[in-house]
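May I ask for a protein sequence together with how it folds?
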Amino acid sequence: MLQLLLVSNLLLWEYVVSVPVCLDIEEYNKLTIEELFDRAIIKAQYTSNLTRQMSEEFDENFAKSLGYKDRNSSTCHTASLATPENIEQIQQTQLDDLLKVMISISRAWYHPLEHLVNAVAALKGAFETMWLKVKEVEEKNQELLKEIKEILVRVHPGAEENVYPAWMGLAEVRSANEDTHHFALSNLFRCLHSDTVKVATYLEILKCRVIHNNNC
C-alpha cells in the first residue's frame, strides 16, 4: 500500500499544472540581477558545450549503425513546449514567459538526466569521461534551474511556473534490443543539446533586454 501511495504521489507531481516559485534565496540575495544573469549564462554555455561533446562522443562510438536521418527524426519530449525559434520571436516574448519556458525545459530534463546517468554507467564500452560529463550536466541543470527561478522572482515576484512535459521514454532507454537502446540514448543526447542551446541563447538575449535595454 505504501508503494502504491508513493507511485501515486509521483504521478501527480509529474503532471502538475502550475507550481509556485519557492526557493531558498539566501545564497543569491547579495547578488545583483546582472550578476545572476552572468552566473546563469556562463553555466548554460558550459552545459551546452558539454552536451554537444556527449552527443558527438556517443554517436561516434555507439550509433554508427543507426541511420543519421532516422536518428534525427524522433520528436523530443520537450517539443510540446511553445518555444520561440528565432531572435525576433524571442524579442516578442514577455520576460516572465521566456523565463518560465526556460524553467519548464530544465524541469523537463530532471528525470531523463537521472536515467541517462544510470544508462551511461551501465553502457558496455562507454568511457568514464562520458559518464562524468552526463553526471556534471545533471548537476548543472539543477543549479541552473535554481538560478533561473531566482531571476524570475526578481523580475516578476509571485510568478508561477508553467506546466512541464513528462518524459515517456524510459522503456526504450531500458530496452534489451541494442538498436532500440542506442537509438533512444542518441535521441536523448541530441534533444538535450538542442534544449541547452535554447536556454543559453534565451538567457543571453534576455540579459541584453533587462540589463542593457537591448543595446548590445
About this structure: Residues 164 and 192 are 15 Å apart (CA to CA). The two ends are 58 Å apart (CA to CA). The beta strands are 19-20, 160-161.
